[in-house]
Amino acid sequence: MVELRDVTKCFGTFEALKCASFEIKAGEFMTFLGPSGCGKTTCLRLISGFDAPTSGRILIDGRDVTVDPPYRRDVNQVFQNYALFPHLTIYENIAFGLRMKRVAAPEIKKRVERVIQMTSLEAFVDRKPAQMSGGQRQRVALARAIICEPKVLLLDEPLSALDAKLRAQMRVELKQLQKKLGITFIFVTHDQEEALAMSDRVAVMNEGHVEQIGTVHEIYYQPATRFVASFIGETNIIEAEVIGADETHTLCRLEGGLPLRIPNSPIPTSDKILLSLRPEKILLHRTNPGGVNSFPAHISMEVFKGAVDDLTLEVEGGLQLRALLTNDGQTDFDFHEGESIFAGIRPEDISLIRD
């Protein structure tokens, strides 16, 4: 539905987006994720037509729209501040786009009523935006955007002004609405949890580059770079040296000489590599379970976080690892600061990443 081909955007000498190329499928919920200044909003504005690329091409539904103004692209955008008309009622705000397109009055009434029902705004049609909560105004902005039935809906951090509880609720509503409509959604956020909760795929961006595009599972468990591994959730970044291989695993040596087996990778012996290990994937035991990647450890710090315990482990050679344990009330999993235990790591839970 949307394709960027070698798109670069410069503001003077500053490159906000650097040679970006990717495709977004029809009906997909795609999220641009990254810190402030990474280029995600620039990318959205290029797709919408509010900015023109310095070089490269942009296609929507197979048509080259690189030089087309916004009104000639079959897209709509929901802005961070919603941009509702304060002097119009909710009904009039939603109907505005259809009136500008000179749609017949009976059709406007039919479509407005359908969208109002879809977004659960029946009780608010005669109110004005100032009389509504942030979550209600957000639904109005969505209703106004989807009523014109665009091929692509662009959302620029529309949940950022909401409180944490309402934001979590709106994530669910937004994803359900997208599934119901079947419209391609392109969502911009710096919130990793938001991206993981709603997206079919995520494009992680950093300093104008697209670092990785993948499903939420791929982005989280198979990060391609140190930045992606560190930005998405929490992880242990481990430096290692390849010392050999057998039929099933590549053998590495960590700091202090600790051996670690990872899935077979075509890496020359003596190469220095970086590994990513999610803290919840570290398995703790009272006694040595044996097998590969099992070693003694000492719990040097414990931080209680309600649903989980955040543990710092000191292992052989001075290496520190973080482990997260779910507080499920089972005695066997009740580990505390000061204890000596055994840590286990499954080779398949370790990801090889680029620096």
CATH level-4 homologous superfamily of the largest domain: P-loop containing nucleotide triphosphate hydrolases
> What shape does the CA trace take?
elongated
Count of alpha and pi helical runs: 8
The name of the CATH topology of the largest domain is Rossmann fold
CATH architecture of the largest domain: 3-Layer(aba) Sandwich
Radius of gyration: 25 Å
Sheet with the most strands, sense and barrel status: 6 strands, mixed
Count up the domains.
Answer: 2
User: Percentage of helical residues?
Assistant: 10-25%
CATH class of the largest domain, named Alpha Beta
Low-pLDDT segments, ≥5 res: none
Structural class: alpha+beta
Distance between the termini: 32 Å
Strand arrangement within the widest β-sheet reads: 6-7-8-3-9-10
Average pLDDT taken over every residue: 88
SSE order, as H and E? EEEHEEEHHHEHEHEEHHEEEEEEEEEE
Q: Bin the strand percentage.
A: 35-45%
Strand count: 20
